[in-house]
Every structure is written in structure tokens, then in C-alpha cells.
Amino acid sequence: MLAFLSLSSQATAMAVSRRDRVGNGVRCQGAPQGVSKGAFVGRALERATHRWPVPTSVAVPTGRVGHRRVAWLRATATQPTLVKPKQTGDAHADLCINTIRFLAIDAVEAANAGHPGAPMGQAPLAFTLWDKYMRFNPKNPGWANRDRFVLSCGHASMLQYALLYLYGYDRPNMDDIKQFRQLGSITAGHPENYLVPGVEVTTGPLGTGVAQAVGLAIAEAHLAATFNKPDAKIVDQFTYFIMSDGCAQEGVAAEASSLAGHLRLGKLIGFYDDNKISIDGDTDLSFSEDVGKRYEAYGWQVLHVANGNEDLAGLARAIEQARSDLSRPSLIIFRTIIGYGAPNKANTGGVHGAALGADEVRATRDNLDWKYGPFEVPDAALQHFRRKVDEGAKLEAAWKQQLAQYQQKYPELAARFERQVLRQEKSPGWEQALKECAAKQGAMATRQASGAMLNALAPIMPELIGGAADLAPSCNTLLKGTGDFSRHDYAARNMRFGVREAAMTAVTLGMRLHNSGLVPYCATFFIFTDFARPLIRLAALSEAGITFIGTHDSVALGEDGPTHQPVEHLASFRAMPNLYMFRPCDANEVAAGYALSLKSAHRPVILALTRQKVSKVATSSYDGALRGGYVVADHAAAGGTPDLILIGTGSEVEVVLAAADTLQKEDGLRVRVVSMPCVELFQEQDAAYIESVLPQAVPRSKRIACEAAASFGWSRYADHTVCVDTFGHSGKGDEVLKFFGITAQNVTKQARLVAMA
Length: 757
Ligand SMILES: Cc1ncc(C[n+]2csc(CCOP(=O)(O)OP(=O)(O)O)c2C)c(N)n1
Ligand SMILES: [Mg+2]
Hints:
- The protein is an alpha/beta fold.
- It is built from 26 helices and 26 strands.
- α18 links the parallel β17 and β18.
- α2 packs across α4, α8 crosses α17 and α14 packs antiparallel against α20.
- The termini are far apart.
- The structure holds thiamine diphosphate (TPP) and magnesium ion (MG).
- Thiamine diphosphate binds next to α3, α7 and β10.
- This is transketolase.
């Protein structure tokens, strides 16, 4: 099939832009005098030029390439003739690059699912970066001082799997690649950090990789500022990411990039695959901003490579320029053709997310002069890639020597480095500190108790670092005794995220997945988990234990009204896999919530905390709370069966306790009260424990759950609820609670009805 067109006659080069098309024809931009416009008219040629920009000897513009549909033609004739893509002009490099391309093509073909287009377009950049610049040790993917790489356009996963395999990581191996996207295979549809050791963060939701990369770079900056000495740079890593049009369009990437520019994270280098194609087709449909200018406005250095498919020297130059400016992050916008090499499908949405099909695969092999069979890796290419096994081992060995010198000179810091970064152990004494802190607290808002816990931990846990999305005073997240993490002080531990909940959460996740022992937390009003939810979900999926503090956790927050009053949030997070939704009733339980989160390295914890003051529950228990649910009061005789069980969480524990008192005193009812700060944790306990707290002898029809939130989910334990199943209202907190019946009086009333029934 014809795809690579060259017009032979007057050897003239020019660019044709889709935007420049006029009517049925093509307006020639920069066409030298004497070249007939007629040469560009005609449907077949038009289709071909739009589908396939053929880079030739044309002088490539070095400025912004964001104009739509730049198509390179050698306009030399009135009759089109076939030419093959030029590729890089370096036969050995092309061999390696096409090895990457065809692994992606063949794996997608075998799976009959996946995304070949982006790997085909990005292979030259990825090859240049990994081959010349990235520092890694394939046989030890966890080497602490490796550079970090994030494929934010996770749909291009075969690019990353091909790189890991070719450069000599143990997994994925060739069998894994042949099992791409199959059930049980580690080569999942999108890169998953918990499946493949060389994958730093899970990507797939577009834009989230960019934001997590910012977190990785922040972790690096913080560790470097903490541990490095003028004569010993034991932390020295770049963070690289590749983003696509979709990432450029997503808000989370914009938020995070804005923060990265503000923080001047000079060792963060992004690559934007500007191929102007997404699923719906041409990005012209919905996207016309100048991304480069936007990043410049964020404070990034922005560089352009006009021909990202063929200009290896240009790619290398840009990377070098990016690496040599450590005063700000860099974005390299490299223009590519999606599906480079596929004669009929390149430069179309059709190559984005479907197998090429046997005919097109054959045509692509022919087009790129690829003489090898499916999954065949030429020896010369493999040898080239695998030299990194030796090189990587040497890099790590040299670093270890450096570390040994560091240990001699700075034994104290080195000991901390070994504990925190290498062994990823927490500072000792944290549990004691939490318990002692809890014992000192009285009646107070649980958000205040949380602030007290953070500050009990801060002095003994230098690895604790975090902050809020512009709500530090409300969420009580400021650590005393340390400053603001800023471009002036990367060693400080109070993060100022600005009003960027999604980026905040992704950054926290990235910091955790730097896997260097940092204990990151982030905070906002519980309602604004709505802005963070996709990243909380990603943390849960990524098996990354981060702490998310959500204050102002119910309608009781009062005057700010329903826009700020969470209702369905507790239930929805309880439904999220691999997450602990923890709602403590007082300081003891807040301490337990922190303990849970510090113990839970692979499962995030959300702490839902009150704005309003709550009592200190005399019988609350740190250990009980760590079982998710426990008895806080029992008016039944020891061993006896209660008439009713009241279950409460957070601020409603004192409500149900007061109701139980009344019911016992005025009605002689034997009421048990259960505090259940964490339903999921309770559910994990053994059957005997669950039975000891919620005996079957007291059927669900004799149980009431009270929570100032949606009743959804409580039917597991109780037939009756005193909850809030509508949006809230603006008003004084206690009046709003009364309006919804979240009072001891109402619970008492309901309990009497239940007891009589
Ligand atoms: C947050 C999110 N929304 C939607 C998708 C589904 N999706 C996958 S790729 C894609 C767009 C592809 O365009 P681009 O990012 O330019 O990738 P390319 O086609 O160039 O490979 C979309 C909408 C997603 N993965 N993540
Ligand atoms: Mg694209």
C-alpha cells in the first residue's frame, strides 16, 4: 500500500499543515516561488500527507512545533512515488529502536489488545534516554540511587516492558512479554508497580504518572537535602517521565506541574509525546493551547525536538540541556508520529489502541526493513541492550564505595540513611509516643488530637513529612520544629500543597513509592476527598500505605453547609478495596489510627476527623480501636446477652453512649455500645472476636448503627440506623445534628421502638 509519498521533479522542501488546508486543496506554507499549488491538490495526496509526514532533508524548525499537523514533504514532483521512512540514519540505533517497536507490535498482536501506536512513536526517545542517560541496575531494580522513570501514558506499557526486558531485568522475561495482558501475567495492560519491580509507580489513569513523578522528585530533593554533604552526594537521582496528549489535558498533571515549577525541582525531566493524536482522532478536536507556553508559565524550562522519530542527536541534545539546568524542571516536547512505520495506520487514532492486524504488521515490517519474525530479538541488538547489566552493576558498586566513605565520615547520618532509606525501617519509639500523647489529651476535636499526634511523632520520626491543601490551620497538620518545604529549604518537612487536592495525593503517593522510608501524609477537608479520590484509589491499588487526613468529617461542621458536608464518603471509602477508612471517637482512637497507618505499609489509611469538640470516652481503647471495633460499654451482666446493641463511630460514639445510659437508667434495658472506628479492620478479625463484640444472640433486628453519614453499608451489622441520607444544611453544627436526629434523645427514642418491636 502506498503511504510514503515523494513528489519528484523540482527538489523542493516544504511543510504542509492541516490547518493550512483551504477548501479542497492545500495551501503551501513557505513554498518557494514556482512551485505550483496544484501539486498539492488531490484527495489521495492530501490523505497521504496528512497521514504520513515524511521527514526528509527538510530543515526542521527548532522552535515550537505545536502547530497542527506539521507534515514534511519532499515536494519534488507531480506524481507521488513510494519512499520508506528515513528512520534515524544510524543502522545500529534503528536495529535497537525497531527491536523495541516490534516487541510492542508483536505483543499487542498476540494479545489482540493493547496500544502499539505510542511505543512505536516513542521508541527513539526511550532508547536515547535509557541507553545514554538513565542510571539503573537491571539486576537490582531497587538500587536506592537509581534514576526514576515513569511512563505516565500507561497505555504505552509495552514500551516499558520491552525496555525492562531488553536491558536485562529479570522480569518481565520473554515469556511474560508473550503473555502480555493475559490473566495472571505480570505484563498487565498498564504498568503496575506491585507486579513488576522495575515499574516505579502504577500508571494508566492519564496524568497521574506526571503527578506521581513530581512526588518522586520531591522525595529525591528532600533526601538529597537531608543526607548529602558537599563532599558526598549519596542521593543523586533524576526523575524522568513520558507524558502524552491525554496527560497534557488532565488536570492532575497541570496541578502537579504547577507545583513542581513553583518548587523548582531541577532534577525532574518530562517528555511530552506531542503526536497530536488521541482516541477520538486529531487533538484539534478539543485541544489547541500551547502546552510549551503553559509549562513556561509554570516555571519550567521548555525544549523542543521537532522530529522525535528520527532526530536522535536532537533528542540527546535536549536531554543534555535539560540535565544541565538544575534550577527548574524541564519539559522536552518531542513531536512524533503515532505508529511510526505503519504505512496505513500511522498518524491516526486507529493505531492508538488496537492491534495493527496481520496485514499492517506485515506492511510495517516491510516498511521498516524488519527481517525478523514475531518476538525475535536480533543478537546484535540484545548484546547492545544487555551491556547495561554490567554497567548497572558497576554504577551501583561505585555508589556503594561512595557510601562506605560517607559512613566513615558521617556515621550518624549514615546510620539513619541505612535504617530509613536502605532498610526502610521506621524510627523506634513511635508507638510509645502515640500512646503517651493520647493519655495527655482531653475532650477536643479529633482533628486537634491528630495535630497532637503528628507533633508527638515529628521529633522522633524525621522521616515524617507532609501537609495540607491550603488548610494547614484547619486540618492541624503543621509540624512544629521544622519549616516549610520550599525551593529554599528542601530539608524542611511541612509541605505546602496549595489548593491542589489531586496533585497533593499523587505527590504523597509518589513520595511513598520512592521507597526510601519516607512517611508522607496529606490533608484536606474530608469532603474534598472527592478531588483526591482517583489518587486515593491509585494508592490503594498500588499497595502504598499513605496517610490521608480528612477533617470536618460530617454535617456537624455546620455553617459551611452542604457543599462542605460529607455524607456518602465514609460508605464509599469502605467500599474501596485495600483501604482502611478510620473514624476515631477521641484521642485514644486517633492514636490508634496513626498506629494503623504506620503499621500498614501497603494499604493507605484515611482518618476522618471532627471539626467539633468531642468528649474523651472514658472506656475508649487504643488496642480495641486497632481491632476495628470493640465494646465501650455494656449494661448487660457479665456473660449475659444484651437487649440491644448500639454501634457508633467517631463523634457519634458519645451520642450512643449517652443513649445507652438513659435506656439503662430509665428503661432498665441492657444495652451494649460498640465503637467501630474501622469497619474493614473489624471485618478482618477472627470469627470468635467478631462474635464477642457482636454476638449473634443479639440479632440485627436488635441493633442500631448511628453515624452522621449515609446509612449505606450498615445493614451488614444492624437493621436500624440513625444516619444522614440526604445532603446536609447550613447552620450551627449542633442545630444541624439535631435537625438530622443525630442526638442521644433521638437514638434513645428509636431504641425504645426497636426494643419493643
Ligand atoms: C484519566 C483517563 N481518562 C481516560 C483514559 C482512556 N484513555 C486511554 S488513552 C486515551 C487518550 C489517548 O491519547 P494520548 O494520550 O494522546 O495517547 P496516544 O494516542 O498518543 O498514544 C484515553 C482517553 C485514561 N486512560 N485515563
Ligand atoms: Mg497522542
